[in-house]
Amino acid sequence: MSYPIAEPAFQHQNVARVGVLLVNLGTPEAPTPKALRPYLRQFLSDRRVIEIPRPVWWLILNAFILPFRPRKSAEKYATIWTPEGSPLKLHTEKQAKLLKGLLGDRLGDHVMVGWAMRYGKPAVADVLAEMKAKGCDRILLLPMYPQYAASSVGSAMDEVFRALQGMRNPPELRVIKHFHDEPAYIEALADKIRRHWALNGRGDHLLLSFHGVPRFTLDKGDPYHCECLKTGRLLREALGLPTEQVTVAFQSRFGKAEWLKPYVVDSLKKLGKAKVGKLDVICPGFVADCLETLEEIAMEGKATFLSAGGGEFRYIPCLNEDAPFIAALAGLAERHMQGWDLAKPDPAVLEQRRLQAKAAGAEA
Ligand SMILES: C=CC1=C(C)c2cc3[nH]c(cc4nc(cc5[nH]c(cc1n2)c(C)c5CCC(=O)O)C(CCC(=O)O)=C4C)c(C)c3C=C
Ligand SMILES: [Fe+2]
Ligand SMILES: [Fe+2]
Predict the structure, then answer these.
(1) What is the pLDDT of residues 152-186, one digit of tens each?
(2) CATH topology of domain 183-315
(3) Ligand 1 atom nearest to CA at 73
(4) Quick one: which atom of ligand 1 is closest to the CA of 288?
């Protein structure tokens, strides 16, 4: 019996095409109730996000959340939507392009950068399949969350593992689990705040607002709370601020259970009542501006602080496309790719791969 070509030459060339995959949370396709419903259904059906036993949660989701929340959330999304779409998606796409530019300059053409959304589009499985078809046999997963939480990074990891499960010959995989204490990330945040001070003068107080998670996840061993506090301390030290001038708080509470405290609403009221004059606010746990930063903090949070008696509310945007942040990502990625052969592939091998990808595309 004869086999089809069992060992095509390119499989034995010691060259790899490496794919860096950025994954962020996801966003609806439009700021409408119709688009919000499938997005929220997918998001809130994730067992990493909602840990309530299924039959009970399924009832709550279908009877109390999906009939009402899509309309309310759509109204909020409408306030931050841009002509090109959701800010979170736009920033993620630009971050991927910039990272590709930086890594390509350093490592050559055979490094690809893809981006996907955990919920909604572009879906993780589709992007991974595309990267594989383009010849990536090594994938570096970079979830776009500096602090690890099971509900964010853990869920992105699950989704990638699920996609690889369906592949007969999956790529090799490495994961950047977190970068909450990465010096270049801390410095990118400090640089952002210093530039804001240079333009607007120093604030009287700095509020660091992180996305919250349910309190019980901390008791069960999720490192998220500790990682947020560590980021906060390192940033405060980098800026040379005393502890009494910095507050760390948690936002975006969902549902009736206790979440990590202090809640940002309470901190904003307290700072307002204390007659803080200039309040600087930044969200270090979000690397891209999104609903939670632009609407919940920069709009709602501002109103809360001012109506409690605060002076001036100064929102500092997320790292988004800042050069020091993209350089931080490139540094992280390069470190995690160590040991992978990054020699430039032979042009003949690239051509073979291109033909193979084309054939695979034609088959699919
Ligand atoms: C920064 C990391 C995030 C963690 C951890 C996280 C946990 C978490 N979130 C919800 C519920 C919702 N979050 C929503 C929006 C949202 N969440 C994050 C990030 C984290 N969430 C981002 C970046 C966004 C914004 C997305 C955008 O399109 O701009 C929403 C949807 C909006 C709404 O209807 O309010 C929900 C719902 C839970 C329950 C949870 C942990 C258990
Ligand atoms: Fe969230
Ligand atoms: Fe929110």
Answers:
(1) 999 999 999 999 998 999 999 999 999 999 999 99
(2) Rossmann fold (3.40.50)
(3) 34
(4) 23
